[in-house]
Specification:
There is one protein chain. This protein has 7 helices and 37 strands. The longest helix has 34 residues. It is mostly beta strands. The chain is flat, with a radius of gyration of 32 Å. The strands form 6 sheets. Strands 3, 4, 5, 6, 7, 8, 9, 10 and 11 form a 9-stranded antiparallel beta sheet that branches. The N and C termini lie far apart (98 Å).
């Protein structure tokens, strides 16, 4: 089997780029793990019922203009042991890019050449749908306006690059029917229904809760969490390709009606397949189940099964079943309350912006609640007695049951409020147990819930700048695109105005043979909004771009040069967003790329008085210069320049007069 996979890799690595053919887009190309080693897309994986094992799958390799497709299936070897058989199905070559990710292709199979039009639809970074027209013998086939048919089997990437949020949201009770077994009999018999809650708080995926392990079709547990790797609406249905965290390729697909009533049927397929038929029945060989869904009561006091709960009340069994039958057993006083029981400090209240590389959202902090459109509403229930940790409750009108969350805050200054949020719980737990802070699974990581604190920037127009703490202009070295090694300066000295502006951070690149004019002109000016200690070796700065107001960044200034060859001073990391924390310096060493890295010459500090484009601003000064003397030199140079211009004007006038005479 290993030899077989290696053969695929070598075959593809030797395929040259052919002139005259179009090239498929980067998102379609097979991913490289190292060198020429490529990982395929997979499709049509057929699982054995009730098992993780599969019998066959399709593997697709894409390199430049070529697509090669193989079928891998389990067979019996000569020694009667199981082994993998490989069959080459076909190959396709890109002939013409007709736009909108649609391509005219040459299709080769067993020596026969045909032609087709194929469109690739990205459902996420790891799920791709293919739409095509029937194969044709006509070489001049036109792809313009041709009706395309969507293939049932998506292509699945070998890993997930970007997080995909589930588009079907809400809480539902359900029972399961296995149409392949006894189609009219429930999967398990229990008076309590199974339950599904999807994306009640953004990024938390789908939670399944079962009354007993025999009700769980996924595993031998009463709880199961699945995450979406692709989610979209097509026709009358919502499809979600889901799996437990870290399972690639994803094993399951869920199909929901686009428009739902209080009761409806959803389908769970054991394989990444997207049937569009009304019956929901998949291709032969794909196992599936029906989920009979029912939207639940949004009230805080409820019975999980009203009819059964009334029976238990009449039988005097409320002591045993009261936790499931709060309404029937008159226990609503024990149910959660949406009423606030605490308040946030005055200096927390207001509008705060959470800004990241790709998205931004606003936190509204009121005296008793926090609201963020993307995350929901959080009401203050209690505060830890000795720190700024708060237990919060969220209530919903979409069927999700109440959830408890912890938020912890730390005020950096009037401009920056630091916070992090825990994963939510459906049960009311003590605050010390609830306030456990961990990142979400990769690739979401710390975008929403996080181990370390995140930074909120005030939306107030009256921000108060702070001292940046990088004095004068310190010489730096950095590398830009195409490995251009550039030199320049960074600090709080403004060479254009020839004065210190301690709450400003200026980045200037100087004339260099190795640095392009485009890069040299890339001067940057920032206002410092916060400065705080990251650890014993590092400090962090939060800045606002003076040229793009409302765009914030975080900087890490560290004297820890571990794992680098730099011996001349500190390193300044410019991150792509205002989100950095005490571990960012370590993260950089382990592969988290900053937007820019500046290597500082700590002993080469100066106060030049020229703009970044002035020819005399070469960065050769290596010692601090008295600002008065520098201003004097600048004034003398300016006077000489004015005198020279005046002489040229007089000479021009003289020449004109000579011509007239």
């Amino acid at each position: 089997m290993k030899l077989l996979v290696l053969f695929n890799v070598i075959t593809l690595s030797l395929v040259p780029t052919v002139l005259g053919y179009c090239t498929f887009p980067s998102f379609l190309q097979s991913r490289h793990v190292s060198g020429d080693t490529e990982l395929p897309w997979t499709s049509q994986r057929l699982y054995r019922k009730g098992e993780q094992k599969w019998d066959s799958e399709i593997r697709i390799f894409v390199r430049d203009s070529l697509i090669r497709v193989y079928k891998h299936s389990e067979s019996v070897c000569a020694n009667a042991t199981a082994c993998i058989r490989e069959d080459t199905l076909y190959q396709r070559r890109c002939l013409e890019d007709v736009g909108d990710n649609t391509y005219k292709m040459e299709h080769r199979h067993e020596g026969k050449i045909q032609y087709t039009c194929v469109k690739f639809v990205q459902r996420s970074s790891s799920v791709l749908q293919v739409q095509s027209v029937p194969l044709s013998d006509n070489k001049d086939i036109s792809c313009q306006g041709m009706p395309l048919t969507t293939e049932k089997w998506p292509w699945l990437a070998p890993s997930q690059k970007e997080w995909s949020f589930c588009s079907f949201i809400g809480g539902y009770d359900f029972t399961i029917i296995d149409p392949e077994g006894r189609p009219d009999v429930k999967l398990c018999v229990n008076w309590r229904p199974s339950r599904m809650e999807s994306e009640c708080i953004k990024g938390e995926g789908i939670d399944f809760m079962f009354p007993a392990v025999d009700c769980n079709p996924f595993s031998q547990r009463t709880e199961q969490k699945l995450y979406c790797q692709g989610s979209w609406t097509e026709g009358d249905y919502v499809f979600m390709v889901v799996s437990p965290i870290g399972e690639y390729p994803p094993k399951y697909t869920m199909r929901f009606p686009k428009t739902t009533a209080d009761e409806f049927t959803a389908y769970m397929y054991f394989g990444a397949i997207t049937p569009m038929e009304t019956s929901g029945v998949p291709t032969t060989g794909v196992h599936y189940m029906k989920f009979l869904m029912k939207k639940t009561d949004a009230s805080l006091c409820y019975d999980v099964s009203p009819q059964d709960c009334q029976s238990y009340k009449l039988l005097g069994a409320c002591r045993r079943y009261g936790q499931y039958c709060q309404k029937a057993c008159d226990k609503c006083d024990e149910a959660p309350s949406a009423k606030s029981d605490c308040e946030f400090p005055d200096n927390y209240q207001g509008q705060w912006q959470h800004q990241d590389e790709k998205e931004s959202y606003t936190f509204d902090i009121a005296p008793t609640y926090i609201y963020a459109k993307e995350l929901g509403n959080f009401t203050c229930k209690s505060k830890h007695f000795e720190n700024q940790k708060y237990k919060l409750i969220s209530v919903f009108d979409n069927g999700c049951r109440p959830r408890y969350t912890c938020m912890e805050f730390s005020k950096a200054n009037d401009n920056v409020l630091r916070y992090h949020i825990s994963h939510s719980k459906s049960s009311d737990e003590p605050i010390h147990r609830l306030c456990q802070f961990e990142n979400d699974p990769a690739p979401l990581n710390d975008k929403i819930r996080s181990k370390m604190m995140r930074n909120l920037i005030t939306k107030s127009a009256n921000k108060v700048p702070v001292a940046c703490g990088i004095r004068d202009l310190t010489k730096l070295k950095t590398t830009y695109k195409q490995d251009q090694e550039c030199v320049g300066y960074v600090g709080d000295w403004n060479p254009a105005d020839c004065k210190t502006q301690e709450n400003q951070l200026f980045v200037r690149l100087t004339t260099s043979d190795q640095c392009s004019v485009e890069v040299q002109n890339n001067s940057q000016d920032f206002t410092c909004l916060a400065r705080f200690t990251a650890d014993s070796k590092s400090v962090m700065l939060i800045t606002e771009d003076q040229k793009s107001r409302g765009k914030y960044m975080c900087w890490v200034l560290t004297n820890d040069t571990t794992n680098t060859d730099w011996k001349h001073g500190q390193i300044l990391y410019q991150m792509a967003s205002p989100q950095c924390d005490e571990e960012t310096r370590i993260d950089v060493f382990h592969g988290k790329k900053p937007k820019s890295t500046y290597y500082l010459y700590d002993k080469q500090v100066s106060r030049p008085c020229w703009s970044s484009s002035h020819p005399e601003y070469t960065g050769n000064a290596t010692s601090k210069t008295n600002s008065t003397q520098t201003k004097g030199k600048a004034t003398g140079a300016a006077e000489k320049l004015v005198g020279l211009k005046l002489a040229m004007v007089l000479l021009s006038v003289t020449n004109i007069c000579s011509i007239v005479l």
